[in-house]
């Protein structure tokens, strides 16, 4: 920047990582991603945020179930009739859930063992072999930390990592990416107690920064473009190691349970 010139306005960029191979159980997806980023001349660098789609993480971790191997329980059989769903799929969803939140109009909303409230406990039939379903990672925060550590080993770059999945939202149409696993960055930014330009104290402003960044990455990843990861570059990030748990609202303050 020339001396005396105006400072640059705030900005960051999102870069989709193309050319990641099809993932199988046991694959080293950190290596796949690092090599693909290098081939397209956008190698991972220190300070980057790497957003990785949950599906390739689940595939690499072997979180796949063949419906042919599933025997539905009587409860799953009964629920499947009302939902108009495959009872074997309902059985898998129930196994991945700690409780059923709502069941109506063919929709099954559950709370997963991680604490996420979402459709079908995150069980997904897209982009997997026919008659297979993919489950969420057992511990998405652990998955994010493992990716961060492996990227550091492979490239020397110290990056932050978000494992992202697509959730629906109450009161709003459409799906959006959210962060289900985190490594290296603080998931929320609290403005509580700070004052706005008029001097009024902020009393309820807590931004879900990790969810915002997961959603920002999704348009360059897409659902059909086979781009399972993206780099968010140029944005200062607040470091943190608390993982995704601060994004879960305390049941005592959840007015919609």
The helix/strand class is: alpha+beta
Query: What number of domains?
Result: 2
The ordered H/E elements are EHEHEHHEEEEHEEEEHEE
| Strand residue content | 25-35%
Low-pLDDT windows of residues: none
Shape: globular
CATH C-level category of the largest domain? Alpha Beta
Any overview of this molecule?
The mean pLDDT is 91. This protein has 257 residues and is α+β, with helices and mostly antiparallel strands. 26% of the residues lie in helices and 26% in strands. The chain contains 6 helices and 13 strands. It has 2 domains: 161 residues, CofE-like (60s Ribosomal Protein L30, Chain: A), CATH 3.30.1330; 73 residues, CofE-like fold (Alpha-Beta Complex), CATH 3.90.1660.10. 35% of the residues are buried. Strand 8 and strand 9 form a beta hairpin. The strands form 4 sheets. It has a 6-stranded mixed beta sheet with strand order 1-12-2-8-9-13. A 3-stranded antiparallel beta sheet has the order 4-5-6. The protein is globular and about 70 Å long.
Write the topology of this structure.
Elements: E1 13-16, H1 29-39, E2 49-53, H2 54-60, E3 64-66, H3 74-83, H4 87-95, E4 97-104, E5 107-112, E6 117-119, E7 132-134, H5 140-155, E8 160-169, E9 172-185, E10 189-190, E11 206-207, H6 209-221, E12 229-233, E13 239-240
Parallel strand pairs: 2-8
Antiparallel strand pairs: 1-12, 2-12, 3-7, 4-5, 5-6, 8-9, 9-13, 10-11
Helix pairs in contact: 1-5, 3-4
């Amino acid at each position: 920047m020339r001396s005396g010139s105006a400072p640059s306005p705030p900005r960051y960029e999102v870069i989709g990582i193309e050319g990641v191979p099809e993932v199988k159980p046991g694959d080293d997806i950190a290596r796949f991603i690092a090599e693909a980023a290098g081939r397209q001349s956008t190698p991972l660098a220190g300070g980057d945020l790497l957003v990785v789609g949950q599906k390739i993480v689940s595939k690499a971790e072997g979180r796949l179930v063949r419906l042919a191997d599933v025997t539905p329980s009587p409860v799953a059989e009964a629920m499947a009739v009302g939902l108009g769903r495959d009872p074997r799929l309902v059985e898998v969803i129930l196994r991945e859930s700690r409780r059923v939140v709502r069941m109506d109009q063919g929709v099954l909303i559950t709370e997963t063992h991680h604490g996420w409230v979402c459709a079908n406990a995150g069980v997904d039939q897209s982009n997997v072999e026919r008659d297979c379903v993919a489950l969420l990672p057992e511990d998405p925060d652990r998955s994010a930390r493992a990716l961060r550590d492996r990227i550091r080993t492979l490239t020397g770059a110290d990056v932050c990592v978000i494992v992202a999945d697509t959730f629906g939202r109450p009161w709003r149409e459409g799906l959006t990416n959210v962060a289900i696993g985190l490594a290296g960055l603080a998931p929320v930014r609290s403005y509580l107690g700070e004052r706005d330009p008029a001097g009024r104290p902020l009393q309820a402003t807590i931004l879900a920064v990790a969810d915002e960044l997961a959603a920002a990455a999704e348009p360059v990843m897409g659902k059909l473009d086979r781009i399972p990861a993206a780099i968010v570059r140029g944005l200062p990030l607040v470091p943190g190691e608390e993982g995704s748990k601060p994004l879960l609202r305390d049941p005592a303050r959840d007015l919609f349970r």
